[in-house]
Design a protein that fits this description.
about 90 residues; alpha+beta; five-stranded mixed β-sheet; 1 helix; 5 strands; globular
C-alpha cells in the first residue's frame, strides 16, 4: 500500500479518547464516499470502542471507507498490528 500524503483529521495521537476506559481500537481510514464518518477524500484517525469499530467495519463493507491502518489500544498504549507472515511454498 502506498503511503498517503493527505493531512490527517480527526483525533490526534494524544487525544483524550485514546485514554478512555472503553477505547480498544485506533484506525486511520480514507473516506471513499460521503458517509457519517466523513466527506469523500478525507484521511481520518479515530480512537474507537468495540461498538464504534464494528460500525466502521460496516462502512468498509458498504464501500464508504477504506481502513489504511489499525492498532489495538490497551490502557492508552498503541499496539500496531503485526504484518502477516507470508508462507513459502
Amino acid at each position: 500500500m502506498k503511503p498517503l500524503h493527505l493531512p490527517i483529521t480527526g483525533h490526534d495521537l494524544l487525544a483524550v479518547e485514546r485514554f478512555q476506559d472503553g477505547t480498544r481500537h485506533m484506525i486511520e481510514f480514507l473516506v471513499l464516499a460521503d458517509c457519517p464518518l466523513g466527506k469523500e477524500g478525507q484521511y481520518i484517525r479515530r480512537f474507537l470502542t468495540e461498538g464504534g469499530y464494528q460500525e466502521a467495519l460496516a462502512h468498509v463493507r458498504q464501500g464508504g471507507i477504506q481502513i489504511r491502518r489499525h492498532a489495538s489500544i490497551i490502557e492508552g498504549h498503541i499496539l500496531p498490528d503485526k504484518p502477516r507472515k507470508r508462507r513459502k511454498n
